[in-house]
Every structure is written in structure tokens, then in C-alpha cells.
Amino acid sequence: MTDRRTIRLATRPSPLARRQADLAASALRRADLELTVEIVAIRSEADVRAAVPLRQFGDRAAFVARVEQAVLAGEADVAVHSLKDVPIDPSPGLRLAAFLPREDPRDVLVSGGPGLHELPHEARVATGSPRRVAQLRHARPDLTFTGIRGNVDTRLAKLESGAVDALVLAAAGLNRLERADVITEYLDPHMCTPAPGQGIVVLQCRQDDALEGLIDKASDGDASRAAAVERGLGQAVGAGCSTPFGALATISGDDLTLVAALERPDGSLRRCVEIGETARWEEVVARAARSLTD
Fold first, then answer.
1. Buried b / exposed e along 150-175 (16+ C-beta atoms within 10 A)
2. Does the first or last residue of the chain, that is N or C, have fewer Cβ atoms within 10 Å of its Cβ?
3. pLDDT tens digits along 53-68
4. Spans of all domains in the chain
5. For residues 130-144, b (16+ Cβ closer than 10 Å) or e, as one string?
6. Do the domains 6-100+200-219 and 107-186 sit in the same CATH topology, yes or no?
7. What is the DSSP letter of 143?
8. Mean pLDDT of 69-78
9. pLDDT, tens digit, 9 for 90 and up, residues 75-126
10. What are phi and psi of 221, to 5 degrees?
11. R_g over Cα of the chain
12. Within 79-151, where are the H helices?
């Protein structure tokens, strides 16, 4: 990049991804009022192969690989991701440089009427997330779960057509798209623990890029600390993107509360709540990992 007052942000072309890129652009402009930000739309593997179930992609391929490659190739300077889509193992040559303030991290039910426990017997619930299926199956063993792909409007159309009885989505995405009006019920994180990083937008750059200092200024401290805790626990239990694993860190000054859930290979569901000091978060993560895996 020859003009250091211009930053090119790589993101997927979906409405939600573009909205997240706009949030990133605003955060960078606040850090440098003279900065010009350009958006570069990159179709991910999941966008190109829209009919393929997400479980058939590798951990990195579905949503982030092509966007990362654009940054590594110099086609863009910064990648913008939903942190929940970014694999815990780092991508060589790149670093997660800034974490934007967190949106509501909870999952929500969208049904147009009944809540989770009022849904009809054997109701059809659409979600592409093994984590959500694992936890909701324990809350309502009678439900029938079906995979779903596509943006928010595509998913809502499935509900409106009667193809499914309910959807499970992330509150953060609906809030950012100003579609919170469709939410039927916010799911308790102790019953349906969110994905690590859910609700956080992350900016990723090359490790050796001189822009690191500017990008760092856009980072939110609490979001950064929560990301470290949740992803640290994911690494400790060996979780990949398809692992039925959830973690939510809530930080209030010096106090840290970590809620987590993991489905074991035998189908049993382990849950834990660990409380400790924010400054000693690694100890909290270690206790949670033991609770989930011992």
C-alpha cells in the first residue's frame, strides 16, 4: 500500500459482513481522522459453494480463508471477521489486531410466536451450528433439527414459508442489521452458551504491517480480554469450528465470570461456571478446562 492514509478492508459481500466492515471503518477513522477507508468485497468459500453444508468445509475454509488470503497477497490491508468464525489456531503471517466493542453475545429463537419451551412437539428448528444443536437437544430432546445456510433474509424466508417452525440465530447479527424486531426469545447463556467470540468483530492484519499501531487503537479492552479467555478455553479443550463447544466470558472490572459447555464424544453435555479475577484469567480457564474434560 503506497498511501498510508488509505486502508483497504477485506470482508465478505453479505449485508451483515458489510455492516461489520462499516463498524470497523468507523473505529479506524476515530483513531485517525484523516484516514480514508475502502471496502474490498471477497467471496468466501461458503459464499461460492452455497449449497455445501458447513461441516464439509475445513475449520478455516468456510468464512475466513479467502479473506485472509487477500490480506496476505496484498489485495487488502485488513481483514474484518466475525470472531466466532475465526479458528482458534492462528493463521501464519497474520495477527488479530483489534476487537471492536461486543454486541449482545446471546443466541435467540425466531419463531413468530412460541418460545423454545412452547414450540410444538417435534417442531423443526433450523440451525447450522453443532454447538446449538448439542445444547438445545438437551433442553428439548423432542425437537427436530435441520441445517440451514444463507443470509438473514434467506433464513427468515424459510420460516415465513413454513419450511421450518423456528430459527436459532445470533442476537448480534440481527441487532446490527436492525432486525431485532423478529426475535421471539433470547436464550439464556447457561442453557445455550454462545460460540467463543460471538458478538465481537475482529480486525486482522499482517504481522509485519506498520499499520498495527493504528489498528490497535481501535481495540476495545473488555472485548479483547473476553476474546482471550473464550478462545483460550477453546484451545485448552481442543475445540475446532465444528466442535459442540460454547464459552462466554463476562468481565466487570476486576471480576471475571466464565460460562462454558462442551458435548463429549459419548453425547453427554458438560457445563461449568467459573469465577475469578480478570488479571488471573488463565487460572479461570484452566479450572474450566478441567471441569469440561475430566
1. ebbeebbebbeeeebbbbbbbbbbbe
2. C
3. 445 444 445 679 999 9
4. 6-100+200-219, 107-186, 234-293
5. bbbbbbbbbeeeebe
6. yes
7. -
8. 95
9. 999 999 999 999 998 899 999 999 999 999 999 999 999 999 999 999 999 9
10. -60, -45
11. 19
12. 130-139
User: How does pLDDT run across 159-217, given as a tens digit for each residue?
Assistant: 999 999 999 999 999 999 999 999 999 999 999 999 999 999 999 999 987 776 789 89
80, 11 Cβ separation under 8 angstroms: yes
Q: C-alpha grid cell for residue 134?
A: 448439542
Q: Which residue has the cell 501464519?
A: 92
Residue whose C-alpha cell reads 446449538 in the numeric block: 132
CATH architecture, range 107-186: 3-Layer(aba) Sandwich (3.40)
DSSP at 195? P
Catalytic residues: 84-85, 131-132, 149, 155, 241
Q: Taking the CB of residue 15, how many other CB atoms lie within 10 A of it? A: 15
Q: Which residue has the cell 484516514?
A: 35
Q: Could you tell me how many helices (H) and strands (E) the chain has, helices first? A: 9, 13
Calpha distance 236→216 (Å, rounded): 26
- Taking the C-alpha atoms of residue 113 and residue 169, their distance in angstroms, rounded to an integer, is 15
DSSP state of 194: P
Long-range pairs for 44-49 at CB < 8 Å and ≥24 separation? 44/12, 46/149, 47/12, 47/13, 47/14
Task: Tell me which CATH code domain 6-100+200-219 carries.
Answer: 3.40.190.10
The cell 504491517 sits on which residue? 209
Asked whether the beta carbons of 70 and 98 are under 8 A apart, the reply is: no
Question: Can you tell me the distance from the alpha carbon of 182 to that of 174, in angstroms, rounded to the nearest whole number?
Answer: 8
